[in-house]
Amino acid sequence: MSKRLSYGNAMLPAGVRSRVVRSVNGLDVHLLEAGFDKPDRPALLLLHGFPELAYSWRRVMLPLASAGYHVIAPDRRGYGGTTGWHDGYDVDLRPFGMRNMATDALALVYALGRRQVEAVIGHDFGSPVAAWCALIRPDVFKSVAMMSAPFSGAPALPFDTAGQMRAPDHQQRGADMDALLAALPLPRKHYMRYYASREANDNMINAPQGLHAFLRAYFHYKSADWARNQPFPLKSWSAEDLARLPTYYVMDLAKGMAETVASEMPSAAEIAACRWLPESELAVYVEEFGRTGFQGALQAYRCLYDANENAELALFSGRTIDVPSTFIAGRRDWGVYQSPGALDAMSNKACTRFAGVHLVEGAGHWVQQEQPDKVAELLLRFLREQS
Fold it and tell me: Where do the domains of the chain lie, and which CATH numbers do they carry?
């Protein structure tokens, strides 16, 4: 992996700066900042998802800074200008586990000379990382906003089983679901299982259509620009229900993600009309992932299937997020419903001070990029209500 920092101040809005903070839980962290002029400002920590970067927050950082906050958006472990992680497939995955990624966030807060942040805000895979930050260290992360990926809570340990002959069976979402999806009349596979596979990085970084076209189609397919993104709640965690998801979530069994999104490549007119991700800004993602590859980012998905990782998180079974929390997503984001029951579990069980679900019109999965003004407005309202 190259250590060259590829994007910086020349590509950023005035008032947003790029810098590297050294020795942060074994990383040199590249981050973007706004509102850094006054050291006494309350801080917000913004955690991006896949395949994104700190750059994904560029449109919301200045409105948040204008409201009086020091806004901090790092390239997370495995991404962009942050270095110190390993991108091989056969490396130790423990640094990419959820607890260590929460430690990354905590260590960055401390490295910046702070004991608390007003909120940790996460999108996509950054959403569960933000949730775990708030669950494990509520003394540091005073509130949490989760975006596009609901948090259903810590893994549950069997309860009140001492008088039973054996522990109750629990829902299987791993190998059993893989087999059920593959056995459908139109065989399918779950995208997270694909992301955990050895071939995923090569398929995407060496996409037949080229990396630029791959990322353009991927971002388009999951956005409100793709007219068929009309999400609705699924009834159950069954292969038949999951197969109702678009193929960027439940893929055709024989296809990689490069082939999956190729058929949804937007036209030249659609690309020209895309105000939220013009070609000049897409080029930042293309350059960065062209330099680093995707494997570092994919390591976290592999941890989802690691028994030791899940056993470690079971330590927090029954523990809830007890700081103020909220959820924001695009109205046309299938991420809200891709895990049946997760939205309800977050709203009614996992979070004890939940301030509500906000679905933003005119946005798909990339809500903070597609509708940044509305997202900033919702975040500032949430922060004001907690003060």
Answer: 9-155+306-386 (3.40.50.1820), 175-297 (no CATH)
